[in-house]
């Protein structure tokens, strides 16, 4: 019993720290695994075993393959094609924008499936005068349901399958729960069609009728933070805007029309026009300091915002990004990429002052300004995702030539895994090696495509499996569920497991929730004499329903800024979908995976 108390305490503290969000999830998971080892609940082999789990290799390989598909423009091409099919009607658009990502997320990384549709849907919303909020969250939720279409659709699918195989010797097939995934996708699509226009996007949004550039100017209130200065006579003393004056140089336009490269310290000629960002009082102090400068005021509220060859772009910091925790200066956005950070969106409001030294967070949107030759060269993957792309973007000719081979490699991985010719981990690893070998990705790009924090989190959390078993906690929790629900029948037991998993996955990473609940579910099945696969699948499907908070899964977080969603929006829209999805999981799973042996 003392061991049960210890492991339960460590588990409870871990859940609280995950939900609090103050510390990095992978750091919390590593600390919990170390605590299990130090309390003698697991030995050193059990501590490290999770990092050698086949699921870790599979996830890494699939992330590399997904990144190769994205860089080759294959996923974007699919999104553009579907955009043409969508038309202008809201119902038809909603159908296309949910079904397509839902089906794609069954075979590619869900973050890639969602992120590529965000800019496409924003463009459509602007053209059709449909509020983006009515499209983006339904798209993300259907994509999460679509991750239940195949074994490789989500990381927690692989984790559940590996725990099932380790505990029982049985495993799930590549398409064994596809029909259940289709049921969840259908429910999510129909629910979105019936409720999105009523539950989402009720707030007036006049920026929908404006160009995307002008909408960004208004959204970030740039007319309150961007100022034009003219140079009345040459200034030979270099001025460092950021260090000396708290202003950022956005653009410099020479009288003859050319735009020199902007560096930290610059000299200015008579007739130059300077565009700077910062507070008005700081701009006035600068003109007081340098008599040759004259404050003209805020630039005209024009559609292009910038003259000549510069433009605005907007990117998002996704979950697991290496950019999180770093500043714009540390990322060398100006020095390396020649892009100026002029606005940052966080917690539903813009930040425009001293943003170069502000540490970025997952979910932040960055408004960048630069010459078109630099905006088009800016490679967002894997640290950022596009929200507003450059005016013209194109895939390189070399990438286009390799696209066919990348698609063939990916299809081969799917076919080999589906036919059980090779373990899915070996197939994914082989595919990842091949895309690097043909030059679709460099070794450095392949490493960067891997979400290392997710792999660390999963590997560390897998230590709870043997800890729950060794301490007897798994049996104790299983007995508690069985004793309370046995009188009400097997569906009541499945309901208890599904609802518990659903609640855990709202604040935890869904893989963490699955790791906690799968051993308990399998122990319940063993004690009650039921087939284990049904219980494992209920955990797998319930863990995919991260519907009530934006932090439970990367997909809802990605659409928060472009959809201007509040936490209430997630709760209001997600609770109904959860109420419909959970009974479907509980009722349909035993039909496909019988609870008792038929032999």
From TrEMBL:
GO CC list: plasma membrane
GO biological process: potassium ion transport
Membrane topology note: Multi-pass membrane protein
Main localization, broad class: membrane
Classification via PROSITE patterns: RCK_C (PS51202)
Residue runs in coiled coils: none
Subcellular location field: Membrane
Protein's name according to its UniProt entry: Citrate transporter
Provenance organism: uncultured Thiotrichaceae bacterium
Phylogenetic lineage: Bacteria, Pseudomonadati, Pseudomonadota, Gammaproteobacteria, Thiotrichales
């Amino acid at each position: 019993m003392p061991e049960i108390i210890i492991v339960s305490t460590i588990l409870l503290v871990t859940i609280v720290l995950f939900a609090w969000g103050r510390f990095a999830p992978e750091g919390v998971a590593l600390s919990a695994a170390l605590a299990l080892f130090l309390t003698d609940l697991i030995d050193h082999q059990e501590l490290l075993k999770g990092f050698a789990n086949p699921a870790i290799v599979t996830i890494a390989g699939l992330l590399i393959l997904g990144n190769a598909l994205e860089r080759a423009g294959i996923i974007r091409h699919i999104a553009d094609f579907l955009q043409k099919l969508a038309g202008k009607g809201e119902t038809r658009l909603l159908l296309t924008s949910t079904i397509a990502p839902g089906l794609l997320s069954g075979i590619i990384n869900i973050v890639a499936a969602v992120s590529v549709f965000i800019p496409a849907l924003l463009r459509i919303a602007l053209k059709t005068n449909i509020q983006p909020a009515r499209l983006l969250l339904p798209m993300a939720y259907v994509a999460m349901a679509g991750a239940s279409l195949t074994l490789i659709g989500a990381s927690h699918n692989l984790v559940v399958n590996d725990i099932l195989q380790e505990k029982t010797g049985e495993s799930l097939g590549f398409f064994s729960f596809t029909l259940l995934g289709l049921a969840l996708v259908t429910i999510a699509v129909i629910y979105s069609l019936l409720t999105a226009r009523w539950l989402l996007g009720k707030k007036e949004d006049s920026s929908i009728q404006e160009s995307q550039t002008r909408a960004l100017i208004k959204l970030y209130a740039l007319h309150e933070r961007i100022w034009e200065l003219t140079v009345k006579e040459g200034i030979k003393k270099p001025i460092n805007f950021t260090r000396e004056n708290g202003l950022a140089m956005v653009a410099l336009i020479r009288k003859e029309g050319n735009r020199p490269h902007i560096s930290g310290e610059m000299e200015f000629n008579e007739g130059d026009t300077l565009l700077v960002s910062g507070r008005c009082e700081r701009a006035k102090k600068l003109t007081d300091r340098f008599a040759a400068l004259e404050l003209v005021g805020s630039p005209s509220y024009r559609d292009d915002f910038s003259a000549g060859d510069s433009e605005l772009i907007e990117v998002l910091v996704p979950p697991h990004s290496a950019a999180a925790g770093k500043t714009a200066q540390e990322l060398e956005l100006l020095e390396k990429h020649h892009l100026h950070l002029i606005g940052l969106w966080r917690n539903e409001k813009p930040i425009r002052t001293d943003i170069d030294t502000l540490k970025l967070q997952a979910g932040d949107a960055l408004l960048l300004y630069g010459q078109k030759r630099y905006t088009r060269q800016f490679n967002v993957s894997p640290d950022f995702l596009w929200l507003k792309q450059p005016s013209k973007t194109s895939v390189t000719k070399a990438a286009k030539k390799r696209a066919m081979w990348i698609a063939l490699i990916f299809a081969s991985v799917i076919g080999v895994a589906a036919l059980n010719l090779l373990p899915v981990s070996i197939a994914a690893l082989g595919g990842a090696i091949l895309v690097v070998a043909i030059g679709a990705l460099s070794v450095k790009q392949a490493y960067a495509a891997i979400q290392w924090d997710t792999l660390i989190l999963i590997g560390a959390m897998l230590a709870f499996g043997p800890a729950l078993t060794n301490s007897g906690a798994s049996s104790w929790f299983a007995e508690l569920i069985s004793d309370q629900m046995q009188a009400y029948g097997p569906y009541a037991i499945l309901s208890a497991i599904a609802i518990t998993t659903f609640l855990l996955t709202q604040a935890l990473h869904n893989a963490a929730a699955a790791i906690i609940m799968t051993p308990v579910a399998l122990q319940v099945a063993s004690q009650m004499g039921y087939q284990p696969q049904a219980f494992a699948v209920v955990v797998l499907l319930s863990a995919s329903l991260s519907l009530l908070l934006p932090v439970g899964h990367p997909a809802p977080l990605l659409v928060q800024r472009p959809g201007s969603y509040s936490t209430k929006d997630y709760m209001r829209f997600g609770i109904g979908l959860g109420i419909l999805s959970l009974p479907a999981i509980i009722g349909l799973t035993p039909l496909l995976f019988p609870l008792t042996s038929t032999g």
